[in-house]
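Need tokens for this chain, all 580 residues.
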Amino acid sequence: MPTSSLQPVRLGALAAATTLLVACGGGGDAPPQLAAATGASFTGACAGLQTALASLPNTQITLAETIAEGTLKQGGNAVAEHCRVTGKMHERTSPVDGATYAIGFEMRLPKAWNGRFLHQGNGGTDGAVLTAAGALGGGPVTGALHQGFAVLSSDAGHSGGTAAFGIDPQARLDYGYQAVAKLTPMAKEAIKLAYGKGPDRSYFAGCSNGGRHGMVAATRYYADYDGVLAGAPGYNLPKAAVANLAGARLYQTVATTPVTNQIDLATAVTDTERQLLANRVVAKCDALDGATDGMVQDVAACQASFKLADDVPTCSGARDGSCLSSAQKSVLSQIFSGPTTSKGDRIYASFPYDGGFGGGRAGVPTGGSPVGSGVALWEFFISISRDAEATGLIFGAPPQNLATFNPLSFALTTDIDALNASMFATSGLYSESAMSFMTPPKPTQMHGLRNRGGKIMVYHGVSDAIFSVNDTETWFKGVQTDTGYDFARFYRVPGMGHCSGGPATDQFDMLTPLVNWVEKGQAPAAITASARGAGNAGGVNSDLPAGWAADRSRPLCPYPQVARYKGTGSLELASSFSCQ
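Here are the structure tokens for all 580 residues:
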């Protein structure tokens, strides 16, 4: 159970809010329309905030400074002058591992503020305070800070790039959900002290684990947030991690060398072989949306049409990149279907066949260590490193012995059934299971957010190799059944990998449509997305096919609609397609 002293008060406030909404008929009526935010200016000296914010409870401000206009840029755009405030909350020494823990954070407060607060959820296992810029979709050309939001970023209660914090029970809970509970009231009070008023509207945005944080905010802390933007939300993160370990175990069976590192595992399906599969998917499914343009828009029709056994050549001899062996096909079929336990129960979710499976590379630079990117990174590198660490040290109860823990050995030898059971288990000091502290409670029941006028928008790359777009689709269908459609939207991004990359139009701004929906009642429809070709200000996407225009655009359609070619017009322009 939560241990924060803030929690009883917050839960009481949520209960009161729920009672009021029910009394007002909020359950079945149209949700209320929230008013638009109004801005304010900060006219003091940024350095003075170190003293002004000293009264924040359980908080130590470590720095307050002015950041001049243009010091921080996003997509070539200069971010206006603002204050940067750093600090930490609830510093303590763990009685379990003796380490020092605190919730580290950074706030960026614009001199010209738009009256809005954005809590930036970060990815991976957290552990670092990233720049509080509020980045959006792919290689963004804008962000929340650039748009005038006050933005908060945090390390979620621990520092360092490893999963060793999982030994401390409280650090687990902070990472899962309690850091958000502690940071939110602090950030809002800091904003009030800085501007003389609190935020009129509050938002949460992040991708990957940051998307999971967003889902948690939308369910546990709905009274605190008016809008949530969740990208590739790993709301079943422990399941996905265990499934990725099971996938590594399958890949190990077809690797051409004994697996001692990531590159050895990547010999299971080489970059060339992954691209072969991706090309065959595109060849089979490209025209299903009415345009032969190298993109698979009709995801559902593709799954019905493409057959791995028949549509990819089977090697009759040695593997040479022009075919897949029967053993490789068997492994890939199990991975796309979703790895299972020994009893045949699917651990996590299935994955769709898409044109982005060839994205990224695995290799060893001259004189360097093994590196990977894109799909290769998640399939062969993360599975036997970060996911092994997280599964063994954070998601298991009790955790593995840190002194003797070997991620590679753990990933490739530990019984999958035992790992699958451990994420649901509790043990001694670890009184809350990983599937409790990491996941949003009853994720499809979002009446609290919906009934107060809040909105949620979710986007997910179809070629995401770690968190499945199919899992997000299942969530969204459940939301429609359990809560409704008038407050939620889901967007698939064809070809896109995990949060960005892949042969995709992965550059877009969903925050502006979310704000317009929350504050103006303008329900979002298609969102225009662009490719990041040569010269793109947000960074070039190396996965783009050579034949695409550098600025190719497409509409991202609200599920279940599909972007279909109108029959005329340039294949490089979103205006030639419509959501149907």
